[in-house]
Amino acid sequence: MFISLRAWWPYYVMILPGIIYFILFHYLPIYEAKLAFENFRIFGDNIWVGLDHYSRLMTSPVFMQVLINTLIISAMKMLFVFPVPIFLALLINEVRATGLRKFIQSAIYLPHFLSWVVIAGIFIAALSPSNGAVNDIIKGAGFAPISFMTDAGSIRWVLVFSEIWRSAGWDSLLYFAAIMAIDPQLYEAAEMDGANRWQKMTIITIPGIVPTIATLFILNIGLFLNAGFDQVFNMTNDAIRDKIDIIDTYVYRIGLQTGQFSLATAAGLFKGLIGLVMIVGAHNFSKKLTGKGVW
Amino acid sequence: MLRKNTSSFERVEQILILSTLFLLVVITVQPILNLLAISLSDSSKVPLMSGLTIIPEKLSFDVWAILFQHPRVLTGLANSVFIAVVGTILNVVFTALMAWALSRPKLPGRRILFIFVLITIVFEPGIIPDFFVVKKLGLIDSYWSVILYKMVNAWYLIILIRFFEEIPNELIEAVELDGANAFQVLWLIVLPLARPALATITLFYLVYHWNDFLRPMIYFNDQDMWPLQVVLRQFVVEGDKAAMVGIEAMGNYDGASQINMRSLKAGMIIFTIAPVLFIYPLILKFFTKGTMSGAVK
Amino acid sequence: MLKNTLISTVAALALLTGMAGAVNAEPVPVRIVIKDVLTTNPEDMAHMERIEAAMAKNGHEIDIQLVNLPSSGYADKLKLMLLSGDVPDLIYFQGGDEQMADQGLLEDLQPWIAKTEYLQNALWPHNVERLKNYPYLLYPFAARSKAPLIRTDWLEKTGLAAPNTLDEFTALLKAISVSDFDGDGANNTFGIMAPGNTKELDAIFNQAFGITGTWMQNNGEWVDARVSKEERAKLTYYRMLFAEGILDSEFITKNWEVKEDDLYAGRVGVVMGTAGPVVGIYREKMRQVHPGTELTLLLPPKGVAQGLQAISVSKESRGFALSSISENKEMVMELLDFLASPEGQLMERMGFEGKHFSKDGDKITVNDALGSWYPRFMVANPNAWTPPVNLLSPVAQASLDQGVRFFSADNSFVFPADLAVDVDAAENFYRTAVYRFVSGETSLDDWDDYVAEFNANGGAKLIAHARKVLK
User: What is the C-alpha separation between C420 and C460, in angstroms, rounded?
Assistant: First the structure.
């Protein structure tokens, strides 16, 4: 045992700076987050209030709705946003001309640099029932315009599509890197056997990136209750607020009204706890299913 | 890669793929070109411009002149480059070291270390606890407060571990048998083989530092230290004030009657995106196939 | 530099008055934090220096130390600064003050103001009322009211006289919405718009429908105005505006920025601007897009009553606070008192001679640069001090005067923190319901259901509390 530890020492040296960093910049703040259970005082010690902040959050008449919204929006994003960059990477991989491929990649990752305020403006204008481009097309096809931004049935889909628009190109980069890491000899062998494009994709490329997909999926599960504050905050309006009000926007409003930041910290810890449970669950599930998890 | 027979079916496929991607390019690039057009238009025309146009109306460089004349823009640019470059180097070095160690399946304590890292992904205590820690560490008004934040991003760390794990074990063992130590294996085998992955996380870190405004804004009271994002944000917020309806604010509306806010904002957005655009093709260079097979032989 | 000026001023003063012995050599330091008033801004620094010099002449040796806190994230940064124990003497708050007041960090300003020579007279009526309810924050500026505005040439094109009654007002809006004054060949101009919600409409229509405040009397009992019969009548009217295509059909997704552009581009006839300088800015921008075009200020329509929405006097939503742990409270008050004095107001309001205004003998003329000058601390009530020349364009000045003329105090109050979730739930429910009524999604015949749901969403708790507070 000691011998093996001694053999491993260079690896611990490599890990050490990271460990120190995590303790300083992550675990100390987590310790400071004890203020979720306190009332902050400038003079003297903070007052311990236990779970008061949690019960405050949860006694609101709208809390259930907010929680349900968060879960629905997160689930929709997991289902419909998460796979898009994978398809995109596969598509881009099929573009043979390197120059063209780089051009496409450079173009579709641009929206990642726009903040949600700007993106919300773009979407609201594009989806306007009177003069938006999307509704112009719908009207041109002979249908009645749809007020996407104020329609209770469509607003969550607006969140899904704007998220895809903003992040699919950027996120596809990671999968593209995974594809690049696949051994080209596999493709050569497959070609020798007369495999076509479709077969190579399903037999070699996709299995090759499954570990990356699984890892990202499990990590994303951990952030399940973060349904996208900036996005919702900028896209919401009175007509549909009750459909897309999520934990983060809710806590933000309550915190603003009361000036209580212990409340926000309390919500953060709550989300973290749920996230931890979910990430461990997803890991175990994946391990049972595929023999591979995150750790 | 040579194709022996390009069937007509394959050609149809290719056209389908290309037209899908082309459509994506159009819908992602159009809004950006619209912003560019607005920033290059005369302020008197901007209220009349729609979100569809990509051609400037009554070409004017006023906005860009303001951006380039603003005393803090150049220092902001320099600060941004400094923070992004130093930060990214540290990020990549320490992330790679930790990832390599944690990718060894037999490392004693690996499981515990993984959970130690994962906890930091789900528990984000928020800016207030962060601030108290940075204050206690004495890093307020120090570049280190933003450079060190996310020094090892748990997310990227785990992704990199996943990539390192893909490297065939025989390769590593072969070099270890030749007497290479852990650092040498990392340097000679692992890093070269994981070039696309390294390039990706380098870009991710770089862009993270580049886009970050919250932490520099909170941690730097000294405006000379501000990176571009904070400078430009401040710049726009200042101009915004009167329109944001505040009587006390109206005065800072410097030149409000000359410059349209939408135009200025558009210019600012393009200004901050432009430098990153140059980096991207450089990063893409590392996306070459065949790194693995080359090393096996 | 600052110090040198001071020392020489002090020395000169000492020589002149022969009071060298009485003058304290060390000026009293006063630390001030104000959003965007920064040591890095030369104009801010020059302004502080001349205040120091002028106060020294009056025997108050002050050393103003600005704490740099730029506007980005001001409220958050201020909060963090205070919580970490760094508390300046004079603090400008933009939210977040209640938490500090709860902890005893802010001084009750009323006894201090009572001792001042100029400041107490410089306050506006709403300042006095607000201080009575919440004595920790002072914001001596005109009350923020809304001013309905229309393009003068459009008003003329309708051939209608400037409206006075609600019917006349409606007729004007209707006339705009059915005409094509912007001449783009499409019937796409709306009569009126309000960005995001109906708040800006309420600003001018509330009184017309008899909504006099946040809480209303009904058969001797207090009710929430949001579920009053007057509210129902008002929403019925808004519904009519929406259905007739008079109210912008997409107001719900628009923001203030789009509102402005819609006004300049001729997509809407009447919008509300914040009375005072902001109206002046609208006018400037309008003239930039359509040279020679003026804006006309409209009266709030007269229905049950005529007036602007009652203004909350529960507390200042922003303003200056005095630190209770400051060691130099007297000097802070001397500073505020000086700023309220004619000498201080001249500096605060007019900027620098030669740059922002010119003086030729007794004749003062305003320069264009005044547009970029703004008072850092206060604007005295016009009874206490009026500038020697008009600082605002006529329409902007008229909007301010109209705000004063139609001022009424609201009976709203601040809810305790444990009702915050109910305040939030009720307000959000109300806002969504308003949109559904106005857009026609819900019929106003279902009013009783709405009231019941409002009560279930926290409304009942709020009114129960209000009945305890209001006598």
Answer: 14
